[in-house]
Specification:
- The chain is of the alpha/beta class.
- It has three domains: about 120 residues, D-Maltodextrin-Binding Protein, domain 2, CATH 3.40.190; about 90 residues, Periplasmic binding protein-like II (D-Maltodextrin-Binding Protein, domain 2, 3-Layer(aba) Sandwich), CATH 3.40.190.10; about 70 residues, Alpha-Beta Plaits.
- About 25% of the residues lie in helices and about 30% in strands.
- The chain contains eight helices and 15 strands.
- A six-stranded mixed sheet has the order 2-3-1-4-11-5. Strands 8-7-9-6-10 form a five-stranded mixed sheet. A four-stranded antiparallel sheet has the order 13-14-12-15.
- A hairpin with a 5-residue loop joins strand 13 and strand 14.
- The longest helix has 22 residues.
- The radius of gyration is 24 Å and the shape is flat.
- It binds adenosine-5'-triphosphate (ATP) and zinc ion (ZN).
Length: about 290
């Protein structure tokens, strides 16, 4: 058991999730100084310590109670949870680190679906996910387990196909591969230990969670302002995605024009702005929102 009454969060030390994880925690108001030579980093104004580790170790640290929370790819959790463990719970997706676990084959290989891989060798660092998937689709293939550089396995002729994480697909193309099936989509998630926290820590956890939710909701939301003829109000409300009750302010004295201020719960794209202009809106301003607290 740990003596400390500070929440401990396991995060990736360096790699694809590290920068965005830190950025999220900073937006939640956590203030810390990162030093490469240290494992634990104390936050100044909030009773939280960050533990910087390899991403693969994060589920185990949280499961064993070494850390209370963790930020890690859902793919890592899935690979671990096919082995059935109830020691960790996924709290929420965090909207970054998006990728998918996919089956890919050399461009020239004739293969339209997983069924065409029967009897073939598939290289992967996700043997549990792949085994479960092959069983589900009833395909008998040989799994070649590799810890990294899976994409070069076909050119080394140690496998016929691969099962690996893909985001843009550029790495596949560079290695003369093309995707054939997606096993699942993944992104970074917040995980917590299934054990109950002592009351004081549970309060700190609730505060942190509220801040994280506020930051995540704000990331999608926009504040939008515009002027428009009064009769366009209804159409404008239909155009703006996820718009809540807007503030409507009369402009001038004849009441024919209004200013509209509103929160859009989704991103506002150029197409939306063009539609707004087409129904008579002008002086359109779209502003980022930093925090949303209901
Ligand atoms: P570590 O040194 O911490 O073990 P790693 O090399 O195993 O790092 P990274 O390559 O940094 O891991 O990837 C971390 C996570 O980023 C992945 O588990 C996955 O959730 C996510 N990710 C997003 N896009 C990709 C991608 N194209 N390839 C691999 N992982 C990706
Ligand atoms: Zn790793």
């Amino acid at each position: 058991m740990r003596e400390s009454h500070r929440l401990r969060i396991a995060i990736q030390k360096s790699g694809r999730l590290a920068e965005k994880t830190i950025a999220l925690l900073v937006k939640c108001g956590l203030d810390f100084e990162l030093r490469r030579d240290r494992l634990l980093h104390e936050c100044k104004e909030f009773p939280v310590d960050l533990m910087l580790v390899r991403d693969d170790d994060i589920p185990a640290y949280v499961a064993d109670g070494v850390c209370d929370l963790g930020i890690v790819g859902d793919n890592v959790i899935r690979e671990r949870q096919v082995q059935k463990t109830n020691a960790i719970e996924t709290v929420m997706p965090l909207g970054f680190g998006t990728c998918r676990l996919a089956l890919a084959v050399p461009v020239a290989m004739e293969c339209r679906s997983a069924a065409d891989l029967a009897g073939k060798r598939i290289a992967t660092s996700y043997p549990n996910c792949l085994r479960q998937y092959l069983k589900q689709v009833g395909v008998d293939a040989k799994i070649v387990e590799l810890s990294g550089a899976v994409e070069i396995a076909p050119s080394l002729q140690i496998a016929d196909a691969i099962c690996d994480l893909v985001s843009s697909g550029a790495t596949l193309r560079e290695n003369g591969l093309r995707p054939v099936e997606v096993l699942f989509e993944s992104q970074a998630v917040l995980i917590r230990s299934a054990r109950a926290l002592p009351p004081a820590m549970a309060l700190d956890y609730a505060r942190l969670l509220q801040r994280m939710n506020g930051v995540l909701q704000a990331a999608q939301a926009k504040y939008i302002m515009m002027n428009a003829p009064r009769e366009a109000l209804e159409r404008i409300q239909e155009i703006i995605p996820g718009m809540e009750q807007p503030s409507v302010i009369p402009l001038g004295t004849d009441g024919s024009h209004i200013a509209i201020h509103a929160v859009a719960r989704e991103n506002v794209f150029w197409e939306t702005i063009e539609k707004l202009k087409a129904v008579g809106a002008s002086a359109i301003l779209v502003l980022p929102i930093e925090k949303v607290i209901a």
